[in-house]
Amino acid sequence: MTNRVLVVDDDAAVRGALGQTLELAECDAITVGSFVAAKDLITPDFDGVILSDMRMPGRDGFHLLRYAREVDSELPVILLTGEGDIPMAVQAMAEGAFDFLEKPCASADLMVVVRRALKTRALVRENRALKSRLESGDPAARMIFGTSLQMEELRARARGVAATGAEVLVTGAPGGGISKVAEVIHLMSPRSQGPFVKRPAAGLSPDGFADLCRAAAGGSLYLDEIAALPSETQYAMLEALEQGLDARVLVGSVADLAEAAAEGRFLADLFYRLDVMRVRIPALSERPEDIPVLFSHYVAQAAEQAGIATPDIPQEHLAALMAQDWPGNARSLMSAAMRFVLGMPEEAAQSAELGLAEQLAQVERSLLIAALGRQNGNASAAAKALKLPRKTFYDKLARYGIRPEDYRR
Which positions make up the signal peptide (predicted)? Predict the structure, then answer.
């Protein structure tokens, strides 16, 4: 995480004291005495935050704030104000200042705000890096999310096995995106122009497997939850692989296939044939540093689907998410993002504690919000979309404290 802070204050003594406080807190302080001196440092690539005095000769803190927001609207600017500057500081907050602190300011209070701003800046930059990879990268960069070392290694592994023609076994915990990784491998392989045929392995007959191989000719066949493949089809599949296919076979499993083969629940020879190239997806519990970026991405997706402006995510909320194990992995994090966007309970446990009437009320509230979001806050149009009389619709809005104007873009 970035720890750079640009301090702008015309008072050399104050500037020095602020710089010392920041350095003691292990921040990288850059101190300057005016807007002119700060201007060249405020660029879209600046990875830190700004701490500026409100009143300075010439160009004041207001001017600096406006300039910084023109350069980068998401660059946090913290303003230091005198007692008489509070109304100005409130106005500055309305214009986009991250926060303001009244002078003199205790070091502990200063660092609470600065650290919050630094975390916000780091998250913004991570989201931008992710978006850049999604827009310009290869399928591994666009479709496999996460900035942790584990996910960098997963993308590298997917690229490596994609170049081969061998069978691939993709493993991971439930909800980890096994089928998506299999698709990435196909899209990065020499067969990417051919079809990608996906089918659950459960209940697949030998004839059905043969039909799928023909449909996937020139491309890839992906069988999900391969441990559930019927035994007679396992033998047929092994024979087909040994004779040669015009389709690359990719399989996925959340079960321990090696254990199943050792216990006789899966054909051992087929397991060894499929296990030529193994790709393991790390669970979210192994890479909690990915959770803030992933959750922010899913919140933006959920808000777009619901027609709602993307809400701000408090740092405290992200910290709470990182403290959880997420046994459902990406899928459960997506669900949490949707609940967050729609104002529903954050935790499944919290939801489970509610009675039926309360749970139904939460669902009803979320549907009202989603309808308003899709209709740009137009209550009449939202009521019509939900097929509710206008009076009934407004009564429900009043009951849940929902204001249509909050959903106008």
Answer: none
Tokens of 392: 């009934």
The residue behind tokens 């749970």 is 359
Question: Long-range contacts: 394-397, Cβ < 8 Å, 24+?
Answer: 396/364, 396/368, 397/368
Which tokens belong to 373? 């979001």
Distance CA 164, CA 187 (A): 13
> What's residue 352's pLDDT?
46
CB-based burial, 43-79: b 16+ in 10 Å, e otherwise: eeebbbbbbbbbbbeebbbbebbeebeeeeeebbbbb
CA distance 168 to 185: 9
- CA 94 to each of CA 32, 75, 88, 160, 336: distance values in angstroms, whole numbers, following the listed order: 26, 15, 10, 50, 30
Check if the beta carbon of residue 293 is closer than 8 Å to that of residue 127.
yes
Closest CA to 367 of 351, 347, 387: 387
